[in-house]
Amino acid sequence: MIPVIAIIGRPNVGKSTLFNYLTRTRDALVADEPGVTRDRQYGEGTFEDKHFIVIDTGGLEDTDNKIHTQISQQALLAITEADIIFWVTDARAGFTAVDQKIAKKLRGLDKPVYLLANKSDGLDAGIACAEFYRTGIANVLAITATQGRGLQDLLLKILPGSAGSADDLSAPGQSPVKQAVGLHADEPSALPAPALPGNIKVAIIGRPNAGKSTLVNRILGEERVVVYDAPGTTRDSIFIPFERRGKAYTLIDTAGVRRRRSIEDPIEKFSVVKTLQAIAEANVAVFVLDASEGLADQDLHLLGYILEAGRALVIAVNKWDGLPQDKRDWVKRELERRLVFVKYARVYFISALHGTGVGDLFTAIDEAYRSATRQLSTPKLTDILEEAVADHQPPAVMGRRIKLRYAHAGGSNPPTIIIHGNQTDALPDSYRRYLANYFREALSLKGTPLRIELRSGENPFKDKKNVLTSRQVKRRKRLIQHVKKK
C-alpha cells in the first residue's frame, strides 16, 4: 500500500512549499501571502524508490467566513483520506490560538500525526520545537521546507520496507494510487493516477465567475473544489483524474482570466500563467460562457489562446436555466455572429448548478478527442487534395498556375496536414481556408482545429547561372541544324 500524506496547518506556514519539495514540482502556487491555496492539490512523490501520495490543502482558520469555511472543509476531507498527517506550523511565530484548535482536532485521530515546525533555519532544533510539545503530539520535528532540512530522516521513518517500484506495490491491472486508498478501477477518484493511454485531459476555461468550479463539482458528483459567488475564487490549476463509463479523464479546473489591464495582484498574474499552461497541457478545452452576461471581448481573447494552442474545443453556455426567451435568442444570435472563427466547435447550453445538459458535454469531448488524435494516411490525404484541386483550381501567379502535388500528415492534436507543391508561398489565405474546410469535411473532423502547412520543392537550378534546361538545349540544337541546312 502506498501511503497518502496530507499536509495541513493554518495559512501561510509553508504547506505548499513543502508539497513542491516532496513532489519535486512547482505544481502548488507559492506566495508570501495567506490564503493562496484553496483546493486540495494532489501529487506523487518518490524517495529512495519508495512511493507516496501528497495532498496540499488550504489553511485551517477559525472564522465564519463562507469561503474560509469551505477551504477548511477541503482540508478536513484530506485528513479523512490520508494515512499520515503532516501538521505544519511556523517555528518563528510560535504556538498560536489557531494551532491550539487544530491540535484538539488532531489529538483524537487514530492516525500518525507529525508536527513539523517549519522555517526553523538559523534556529536551534530543540528551541524551535520546545513550544509545540504542549500540543500533546509526540512526533515534533524542526524542518525547513525550502531547503528540505529535516525531511530525509522523516521520510525514512514513515516509509519503511525495502525499496520497490510502484508496480511491485500494486495489484495487477490496478493503479497503485487507487490501491493506496482502496478504490476499485471503476470508481471515480480524486487522487492522481499514472498517465494511461487514452487518458483525456479536459481543461475547464473561462472568465472569472462563469461557473467553472461548479461545473467541475457537477461532473464529479462531489464538492471537490471550492465554489463561491465571487470572481477569483480559484487561484491554481487543479488536476483531478477520474473515470466515467470505463474511460479515463483528467479534469483541470483553472482560474478565470480577466483582461490584462485589469490584473494588478501578482498572485492573479501567476494564476493566469497557470491557466495558459493548463490549456497547453490539455487535449480538449471546455470553454464556459456566462449566458447572463453574454459574449464579452475577453471571451474572444481566451478562445484565441485556445485556437493558437491548437486544442480541441467544446463550448458550454452556462447559467441557461431561468434565462428569458428573448435573452436566449439574443445570445444565440451573438454566438452565431461572433464565433465564426471556431465554428467547428459544438455549442451546448447547460446549467452547471442544476446539471442540465452537463452529461451531453462528454459526447462532444470524446468526439473532439478522437478527431484531434486521428491517424491520417498519406494516400487518403493526397486523394482528397486532388479532389479539392479538381473542384477549385489554385489561382495563377505571374501567369503560372500554382501546383499542389501531394499531402501527408504532419502531426496530431491538432491534426496537421503538410501539402507539397510549387509556388506555395504565393497561395492566398482564402485558398488555404478552402483547403482546410475541404479536408475537415472529407475527413469528418469535429471539434478540433486543422492546420495546413505548405511546402515548395527546391528549384535545382536556382543557384546556378547560365545553365540551360533540357527543352532549351533541344531548341538550340534544332536551331543549329536549321542554320547548317541553309
What's the quick description here?
This protein has 486 residues and is an alpha/beta fold. It contains 14 helices and 17 strands.
Notes on the protein architecture:
With 486 residues, the chain is an alpha/beta fold. The chain has 3 domains: 4-176, Rossmann fold; 195-372, Rossmann fold (3-Layer(aba) Sandwich); 374-486, GMP Synthetase, Chain A, domain 3. Helix content is 34%, strand content 21%. The protein is built from 14 helices and 17 strands. The strands form 4 sheets. It has a 6-stranded mixed β-sheet with strand order 2-3-1-4-5-6, with helices on both faces. It has a 6-stranded mixed β-sheet with strand order 8-9-7-10-11-12, with helices on both faces. Helix 10 links the parallel strand 11 (312-318) and strand 12. Helix 12 (378-391) crosses helix 13. The longest helix is centred in the N-terminal third of the chain and has 16 residues, at 66-81.
